[in-house]
C-alpha cells in the first residue's frame, strides 16, 4: 500500500456556470462487508490514496483518480471509484476480544431494537423500551452481585474464615480469622474484598466512557453544514413535494414519511448513553455497598455491640433511596431521535455515581468498625437476593412478551420472527447468558477454593459454597443441551431431505450438461445448508422457552432445598439428589470449559480474518445498533460509519452539480449503505442509485428488526432513491431478496444468480468453477450488467459533442470500476 497522502483541500463551491462536462461526473462509493477489506482489494489497484478520514475509517481512491472531478473527460465510460473502509471500527488488537465478556449486555441491547412495528402506539412503545432497560439494569446488578459473591462471600467470608481453607491459600493468610490480625475481623475482610467488585464497576465505567467519547460524541453532518457547500442552492428543496431538477419540470410523487433510521438524532446517542452509564455505574456501586453494609447491619441488629444501629440503618436507607433514583433515571427517558439532542445531564452524570460511591465508602467505614465478637460462619445471606433477581428478570421478560404480542397483534407482519416475540426471546437469552456466566464462575471458584471437596455437599468440605440457586443454574446446562438435541436432529434430517429434493432441480437448471452426481450433491448440500439461516428464529424460540421454564424450576428447587440441588429439607429423594449433583458438577465444568473457549475464540477471531468471518455475523449485527438499553455493551460502529457515508455523499453531490452517485454495498456494507441513504436530504437521495449484493436487509434485519427494516421502511427506501438493484444467490447463507415489488415497478431483486457459474468443464471455463456462496459477487457477469444498468438509469455520464456541435447523451454505458468488496 502506498503511503497515505494527506486529505485533499476542502471542496470549493461550484462555479455559477459549470461546464457541460463537469455536470455529468458520476461516483461509485464501495462499502465492504463483514470481515473487512483493504482499499487495494476493493479498488483493484495496489496504488491507493486516502481522500478523507483517519486510520480507523476512511475513504480511498486509486492514485490516478485522486482528482477525477477535475478531468471528467477521463470518465465517460465509468464512474470515479471510492472505497469506504470501516473494518477498523470493529476489529483491532487482541484486547478487543475482552468485549466478548460483555455479550449479555450486547444481546439485551438487541432486544430493544427487535420490537414489532407499531402504528400510533406511543405509550406501548415507551413501555417496551422501559422494560428492556430494566432487564438491562438487572444484568448489571447480576454481574456485580456475582463479583461480590466471589470476592466477599467465597474468599473473604468463607475461605478466610475457615482455618483449613486459609492455610491452603497462603496469600489469604493475613485475612485469616485464626491469626488474629487487624484484618481478621469479618467486617474488615469484607471491606477489603469490596475493592474487587468496585474496581470491576469502575472498569466498566471507564470502557463505556472511553467508547462514548470515540463513537456517540461524534456529531453527524448537519444540513446547515451542507448548505455551506452549496451556495448555488442545489439542495434548496428538501421537502417531500420538492421538484426533481432532472425531471424536465415534472414533480415526483410525494416522498413517504422518513423512517426511524432517517431521523436526525438516530445515530447520535450521546445523551442517553451518558444517562444510562451514570445509572448503571451507580447501580453497581450500590450493589457492592448493599452487600457490605447489609452484613454489618445484620450483625449489629442481632447483638449488642460498639456500633450504633442507627449508623447501619442510615447507610441502608441511603442505599435504598439512591436505588429508587437509579430506577427513576432508567425509566424516565429513552432515546431522542426526532431531533439531535446535544444536551448533557451534567449534574446527573456527576452526582448520581458520586453519591453511590460515597455510600459505598460509608458502608466500608461502617463494616470496618471494630467488632471483636463477630465471627463468620456458613455463607453470607445472599440467597434471597439472587432468587429475587432471577424472579424479577423472569417477570420482566414475561411483561415484555405481553407488550410485544399486543404490538404485533395490532400491526401484524407475517415475516416477523416468532410473531413479534423475538425481542422478549432474545432478552431471555441475555438473562440466561448472564446467569450461566455468573453461576459458572462462582461454582468454579468455590471448587478451586475447596480443593478435593465439593462445596456445600457436606462431605469433607471446608466452605459452604455459593448460593444454592447458582448451583441449580449450573445443573440446568446439561438438561438444556439435551433438549437442544431434538431441534438439531430435526434440522439435520430436514436439510438432508431438502438436499435430495434439490438434486433434480439443479440438474435441470444446468441442462443440457451431462449430470454429475458428486457435483449435484455438493451444490444441493450447500443450498440446503444456506437455508438453515431461516430456521434460526424457531431455534431461538425453543431455547428461550426452555430457558424460562428451567429457570423457574431452578428458582423453585432452590427454595425447596437449601443444601444441594435435589435434596429436600428432610434429606429424602436420594435418586434425584444424585442426578442433580451429577448435573450440577457437569454443568459447572461445561461452563468453565466453555468460558475458556469463548475468550480464546474471541481473541482468535480478532487476529484471524477467516475466524472473524465465522463469528462476525452475530458480532457485527449486535454492534451495528446504538446502545439504547445497556451502556456497557460494546460500542456501536454505525454511529461513526453511517454519518461518514452520509456526509461523504452529501458533500460530493453538493459540490458536483447534477452529478450522480452509486453506492455499492456487500453484506453488512449494504445495511450501512441503506442506513446512510436514509440520512440524506430528499433532493440528494433522488440522485443516488443503490446496489446491494449478499445483503441481509430483509432476510435478517427485516425479520428480526421489523420496526426499522420491515416491508414499509424498505418500500419507502425503494421509492425515495433514484433506483435500486439487489443481487442474491440461493447458496448464500446471509444474503437474500429484499422482496419489494411495487406495481408497475418490476422490483428490486435480481436472482437467484447462478452459482456456480458453470456446472462442469467448458471451453470458456476449462477448470471447475467454485461455489461462491456469500463471496465475490463481482465475479458474476450479472453484477457488471446491473451496475451498468443503474448508471444508465441515473442518466448520461458525460454529454458528448457531435459533429454539428449539438450535445447528445451517450447511449451505451459501459461497466464501471472493477473494484472489489469482500465480506
Automatic annotation (TrEMBL):
Keyword annotations: Membrane, Transmembrane, Transmembrane helix
Record field: transmembrane: 97-115, 127-147, 190-207, 278-297, 309-331, 343-365, 385-404, 416-442, 472-493, 535-559, 579-600
Coiled-coil region(s): none
Entry keyword Membrane: yes
Biased composition annotated in UniProt, kind: Pro residues: 1-18
Record's compositionally biased regions (Basic and acidic residues): 232-241
InterPro entries in the cross-refs: AB_hydrolase_fold (IPR029058)
Record flagged with keyword Transmembrane helix: yes
Lineage: superkingdom: Bacteria
Stretches for region Disordered: 1-26, 226-257, 794-823
Name of the featured protein: Integral membrane protein
Source organism per UniProt: Streptomyces anulatus
